[in-house]
Amino acid sequence: MTALQRVTQWNAFSRVWHIFDATWQNPFDSAKLITKYLKGTYKPLYHPLNDCGDMVVVINSKDVALPGDEWRKRAYFHHTGYPGGASWTLAWQLHEKDPTMILRKAVYSSMKGNLQRRYTMQRLLIYPDENVPVDILENITNQIRGSRKVPRTHISYGEQSKTFPRILDFPEDYVLK
Length: 177
Hints:
By secondary structure, the protein is an alpha/beta fold. Helices cover 30% and strands 16% of the residues. It contains 7 helices and 6 strands. Helix 2 (27-39) packs across helix 5. The longest helix is centred in the N-terminal third of the chain and has 13 residues, at 27-39. It is flat and about 80 Å long.
């Protein structure tokens, strides 16, 4: 085996650590993207029986954006396993209890047909904000780009925003309610 073949094989079967920023991202579109890296389907030697998936670290899961009225209308099912243990929870209530759960459930359901999805989900680390342990940040070597671009706010422009043309000048005694 040549040195090039050896390095190619190491790269194919090594676990690469990816980071994904979930700010303003649709969790269902993001789940398809994250699943590709968790299962390793982007690798040239992918096979469903090979365990060649990568580690994915998701940050800012509390800032996900569901489309339309999904926050009020989408309900998640949970069953405790006991008689009468079935319950339905609305998306906004689930997000208040655990800001990582909506993205976790979206990724889990996007892996339908994968017999190893419980073990594959162990390679997914989700954090509600940007506070990630240092030992995990040291391993990250790649960034997964989201499908939606996060717009900049007016405040983020700083001193530049004072030079923008004004559409309307409010009177000095105007009070916002």
